[in-house]
Amino acid sequence: MKKLADRIRKADSLILSTHRQCDGDGLGAEMALFHALRAAGRKSSLINVDSTPRKYRFLEPDRWIQYFENNQELPTSVDLTLIFDTNDERLLEPLFSALKGRSKMTAFVDHHPVLNKGPHPSAESWIDIKAASTGEMAYRLIKELNLPITRDVARCLYTSITFDTQLYRFVRNSPVSHRIAAEMIEIGIDTEDIHRHLFGNQTVQKMAFLARALGQIEYFADGKLAVLKLKDSDLFHYNLEPDESRDVIDMLMNIETLEAAALFREDGNNQYKLSLRSKGQIEVLSVAENIGGGGHVHAAGAFITGKYQQVKDRVVNDLIALLEDTKRTGT
Q: Which residue segments constitute the domains of the chain, with CATH numbers given?
């Protein structure tokens, strides 16, 4: 981390980014460093693959972020590109390829495990799988750089950590997330407003969508595995963004008998965003990696193409095999 901080100090030009279909962790982390650099009189550019989901509008992302899907104009040369909340370059396409010949150095700042099957991050990257969020890492980087933590910085850091720990439910059995959050609160941010935007603004349309979707859950392995397909047409019908389905799989995991769940969100014709979750009895990262994805040991995902029944059968069979193996070995 100290080497990366030194590279940031020496860089005259910086681009900050995160994975496509950004979430609160990556967005909050990149914007926190951006605002910290800005408060110190340092210039940097925020360039993301695609637009920011509307639930994060309270951070005013459209004021600061260039969206590559709408504006492909890039600087001819940049000293350092920092990519937050992923170490898989595929999740930044086509932006990553466009930056390849322009950025002198690219570093990933991430808390996901490096893939066994997939591209590896650059040697300059900082990967810390013990961190509960990328926001935690952004905080440490800001501190190492001795940058000011203004209210804008604090709000972004708190958003990042609160989102990725799911209101501090998943903190890797560490007090770090709570300590950082307490420091941000002392700066004077409105935590209730952030919580409301992240978790509390459910619409009538979202409730109607959930009523329809949750009635279509399929169960396997004696109720230990749940599978759900969310149709693109249903999201459109209820005027919802894809991001507004992100929390559905976490709802599934509240079912008492479940050990794992798979959610297929239809993004187009034979195109799906797969989300996988486990309560800890099995790991799901290998299932995601086998189809070109990644993530955490117990929370992973992938973008996949194929006929739904075929891709569903493959994922279900892999998950059932893991459940049966665990049952057989008792581990």
A: 2-199 (3.90.1640.10), 204-329 (3.10.310.30)
